[in-house]
């Protein structure tokens, strides 16, 4: 059987056209998603396997992309740790009992995978509902990004508290990162067991780090985590603002390195090496531009990938809520048309 | 006469030790500054030449740095354009009448340098009060960063409105950038005429751009602006999150390229080329760490600069308000001690 183009590209095998999927493809920009969200709050939707599977499948089929990604959130794994996770309307996620010391790290509850069974159930239902040839991606937040939420208590501009613990209390930092890495690996393996065909690690905010800090305080934990993921399942290792970190991220592991738009794709691929696949890297705001401009940008990125096996087209971060659905579909079509041999 | 180390380093001449100054060295972390701010609002302080000169000089002398930088704000040049600039407490700057169309660009008032005479007066007074050997830096926001404030009406996470105009209405974008570049050049030349020994262009948010967009929509305007600055005065060209843009920024101009901490300094210098000076690049949050850690990090950066003429030590962005003054002084001392031949 011919493997689906997305999985072939993860393994740097030749493909008939460049596969494409889009981060946050099931999201607020899409009317079908907004309709579901009128009935269900964000966390409620994550915890409703039928509804989560439905938005997952609807988005993939509506757009004609080459992979679905399970509807969930990178922070779900933190809830069973007992830190008081809340998704507040407008303000983004809040951790009501943030981690500020080694004692706080010790108080974190071990993650019982049963507490996240709703995600695995959504994966099973989405996998069952999807066409057999359409891969389903599972995902989790990466340890640094999750640690930053735990410590800051939410988003941050400077990550000052996170870095203060990382630099000032390396023992507590290591304990936290080890605990997170183990929980994330178990969680991803459970998603794989439930039917995920590939997994993505979102280290969304790791780009705030100096390369030396990444190498010392993040890279060993990433490597341990990636090594603990069931062999044979492609791992996508993604971050934003990582133009100075790419070589180190690649050393951290993953079959595919996710790259944002702040670096040319050809330059990024040269840096991580051509013996690994890459995913990216259109600026999500480009989808607000007129369709001919979107097509020109897709062509430019495909040109930088130069037809080399191992490119998965994606945005450099999630689709913005104000994006017209027609523009998203036009991008998917453009990638397929322009890359077909 | 031996030139001051800061100016020698701008010109890549040998220096007895690595010169250091720190962005936002006159700021909220410093008790003397907070005392002045109890009397004067932020904009009021900017518009009080005596007080602005005082905080400029006090910070430089208190820290023992190798340059003073005039106390002002990158957005001041926007006020005479008639867009309703306000510095609101806590929320950061607000533009009450943002630019959203070509017609809005046409409505911008031409900047009469007389409207900014208070800055030039502060430069004159600071220059007169500083020791003769201590250079004074003037500055302005760069066109892209100022355009982003004008269009977004304040700060932004995505710069979606800015990019929508940049990509969707290139004529309006070009008109705005040309107008900003001309105003900024005139403003910087006035600061130089008033006594500034060097100038820094803050393109603080340019790191949100894809390299191709920078090359098309920003670089030509930067080059025109830098070319219009009085020859013989060193120009520092600074941005954050620019690891993927450094070669293009260098092509935009400047004697010194300011680099943030998200890339190793030696890697950055290789990219911009050794025929230009570099400034940076300690993570400002590192100043929250214990002093021995600060010294180790200063040593690491000096090691990456490898004693090559043309390195000015600085942070990668401004000093954070919660930074202990003693830590800042310890950094300045460490740079001087560790770099002395």
Protein topology:
The structure is a homodimer of 341-residue chains.
Chain A lengths: L4 H6 L20 H9 L2 H5 L2 H15 L4 E2 L15 E4 L3 E4 L6 H6 L9 H13 L6 E6 L1 H10 L7 H9 L1 H25 L3 E6 L7 H7 L1 H9 L7 E5 L6 H7 L3 E3 L6 H8 L4 E6 L8 H15 L5 E5 L9 H15 L2
Parallel strand pairs in A: 1-4, 4-5, 5-6, 6-7, 7-8, 8-9
Antiparallel strand pairs in A: 2-3
Question: What would you note in describing this structure?
Answer:
2 copies of one chain form a homodimer. With 341 residues, chain A is α/β, with parallel strands linked by helices. Chain A has a single domain, classed as TIM Barrel. Helices cover 47% and strands 12% of the residues of chain A. Chain A has 15 helices and 9 strands. In chain A, the strands form 2 sheets. The first copy, chain A, has a 7-stranded parallel sheet. A two-stranded antiparallel ribbon of chain A has the order 2-3. In chain A, helix 14 packs parallel to helix 15. The longest helix of chain A is centred in the middle third of the chain and has 25 residues. Chain A starts with a helix and ends with a helix. The mean pLDDT of chain A is 97. The interface between A and B is medium-sized, with 35 and 35 residues.
Offer a concise description of the structure:
Two copies of one chain form a homodimer. Helix content of chain A is 47%, strand content 12%.
């Amino acid at each position: 059987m011919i493997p689906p183009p997305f999985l072939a590209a993860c393994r740097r095998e030749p493909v008939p056209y460049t596969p494409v999927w889009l981060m946050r493809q099931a999201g607020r920009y899409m009317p079908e998603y907004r309709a579901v969200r009128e009935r269900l709050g964000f966390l409620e939707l994550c915890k409703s396997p039928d509804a989560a599977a439905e938005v997952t499948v609807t988005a993939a089929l509506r757009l004609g992309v080459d992979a679905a990604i399970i509807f969930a959130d990178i922070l779900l794994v933190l809830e069973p740790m007992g830190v008081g996770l809340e998704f507040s309307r407008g303000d983004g996620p809040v951790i009501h009992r943030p981690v500020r010391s080694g004692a706080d790290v010790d108080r974190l509850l071990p993650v019982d995978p049963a507490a996240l069974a709703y995600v695995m159930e959504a994966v099973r239902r989405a996998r069952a509902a999807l066409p057999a040839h359409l891969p389903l991606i599972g995902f989790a937040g990466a340890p640094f990004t999750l640690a930053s939420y735990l410590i800051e208590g939410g988003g941050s501009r400077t990550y000052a508290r996170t870095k203060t613990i990382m630099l000032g209390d390396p023992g507590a930092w290591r304990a936290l990162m080890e605990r997170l890495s183990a929980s994330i690996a178990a969680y991803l393996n459970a998603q794989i067991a439930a039917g995920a065909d590939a997994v993505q690690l979102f280290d969304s905010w790791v780009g705030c780090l100096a390369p030396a800090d990444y190498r010392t305080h993040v890279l060993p934990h990433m490597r341990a985590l990636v090594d603990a993921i069931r062999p044979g399942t492609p791992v996508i290792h993604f971050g934003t603002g990582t133009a100075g970190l790419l070589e180190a991220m690649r050393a951290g592991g993953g079959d595919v390195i996710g790259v944002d738009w702040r670096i040319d794709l050809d330059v990024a691929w040269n840096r991580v090496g051509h013996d690994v696949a890459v995913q990216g890297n259109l600026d999500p705001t480009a989808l607000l531009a007129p369709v001919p401009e979107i097509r020109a940008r897709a062509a430019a990125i495909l040109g930088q990938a130069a037809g080399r096996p191992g490119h998965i087209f994606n945005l450099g971060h999630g689709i913005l809520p104000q994006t017209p659905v027609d523009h998203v579909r036009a991008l998917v079509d453009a990638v397929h048309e322009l890359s077909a041999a």
